[in-house]
Design a protein that fits this description.
single chain; Rossmann fold; 15 helices; 392 residues; seven-stranded parallel sheet; alpha/beta
Length: 392
């Protein structure tokens, strides 16, 4: 895989996006392409294979949807693009974006969601309508292809989203089976917020000519205020609750490293009457959808989640991010905190650390070029840790 030539165009129109799609984007308040979109659109619109490697929230989905939609033949009632995602929630999010883009453009593009845990009979009925774009989980898509119910002869593009998760282990075998059932000559697009050695090797084998698109990281979002609070590990749940009370966030994401911590945090917040939902990796489809709907609607103003559970999902209007467990890597910190301060809004990130984890704070500051302010809690208020206090 070779680096791509970076595009200099600063508008969607200059990048070759048709007027109806530019107008559709404007209705979604999307008027300026992001770095990954500037790089990806010329490559993908020319039909080339590519790997889109960029942080969550940088516009990777639109970067591959716009070229797909621009080439669709809506007079042909058959799937022409296949988008695979590792979780039902991410597949649903992509499907919704397809529907929104088509509706805003007034285009007769049909998108169909194919995921497990739902009625296959209903999906078989919808397949008869001839969707142009199919978004689904690999297992269900593989099964329908094997049954001959999902017709693939017109598929010209395959997108593998969260490729670092799908291009490893058992999932890789499923992906290979799907690709084997498709006609030769289709375009392959891989998208991911992170890059793993194992998945990169599998991608290179499947698509040796794929162009690696990895925009140079821009400055960290200046609209995010970065805070940290030093405490004993055993006190973190109590301090999280106190921080929520003191800051009174409109909508907050709380990240935990494991399901057990997430469960305990949710239980304690619920006990203290904080409107909270939990995105648990082991929850079934109904419970996960219920949690996301509660958070998106505002019925729950706090969502407790693990990185795995919330990965790839975009929650609008998040004002605060709390790290109940400090990420070990700066990239993971950037990935989490980037869920706030979107679209010009202000955001706040708060990380709870023990004394021996302050080194992680220093790492974030050095590697990300940010300043993190230490704060404390006193009488229900957050205050700056002044020079008169003991410094780390």
């Amino acid at each position: 895989m070779t680096p791509a030539t970076r595009g200099a165009a600063s508008t969607f129109a200059a990048l070759g996006v048709a007027p109806e799609w530019v107008a559709a984007l404007a209705k979604q308040n999307v008027t300026e392409p992001t770095a990954i979109q500037r790089e990806a659109l010329p490559v993908l619109m020319a039909g080339g294979d590519a790997c889109l490697n960029s942080e969550t929230g940088t516009g990777k989905t639109l970067a591959y949807l716009l070229p797909i939609f621009g080439r669709l033949d809506t007079t042909q009632a058959a799937p022409q693009a296949l988008i695979l995602a590792p979780t039902h929630e991410l597949a649903l999010q992509i499907h919704r974006q397809c529907c929104d883009l088509a509706q805003n453009a007034g285009a007769p593009v049909r998108s169909l969601l194919l995921i497990g845990g739902t009625s296959m009979d209903r999906q078989l009925t919808k397949l008869k309508t001839g969707p142009h774009v199919v978004v689904g989980s690999p297992g269900r898509v593989r099964d329908l292809l094997a049954m001959g119910k999902l017709k693939a002869k017109a598929v010209r593009c395959v997108v593998i989203d969260e490729a670092d998760r799908l291009m490893v282990g058992e999932s890789l075998g499923v992906i290979r089976a799907i690709l084997k059932a498709l006609p030769a000559g289709h375009q392959l697009v891989f998208a991911s917020a992170t890059e793993q050695t194992e998945s990169a090797g599998a991608i290179a084998t499947l698509s040796p000519k794929a162009v690696m698109l990895r925009p140079t990281a821009g400055p960290v979002n200046a609209d995010i205020t970065h805070l940290y609070l030093v405490c004993e590990r055993r006190d973190r749940l109590k301090l999280l609750r106190q921080c929520l009370g003191a800051m009174n966030p409109e909508r907050a994401l709380v990240f935990a490293d494991d399901n057990d911590t997430a469960e305990r945090a949710t239980a304690q917040l619920d006990h203290h009457h904080v409107p909270v939902a939990e995105l648990h990796a082991d929850f079934d489809k109904f419970d996960r959808k219920q949690a996301m709907d509660a958070f998106r609607s505002g019925a729950a103003r706090v969502l407790v989640a693990s990185d795995v559970a919330a990965r790839g999902l975009d929650f609008p209007g998040v004002t605060h991010v709390f790290n109940l467990d400090a990420p070990k890597q700066s990239r993971a910190y950037l990935h989490r905190t980037g869920r706030t301060g979107r679209a010009g809004a202000k955001g706040t990130a708060v990380t709870l650390v023990s004394a021996d984890e302050v080194r992680l704070v220093r790492r974030y500051e050095t590697e990300l070029g940010i300043a993190m302010q230490r704060v404390g809690l006193r009488e229900g208020s957050v205050f700056p840790w002044g020079e008169s206090e003991s410094r780390d």
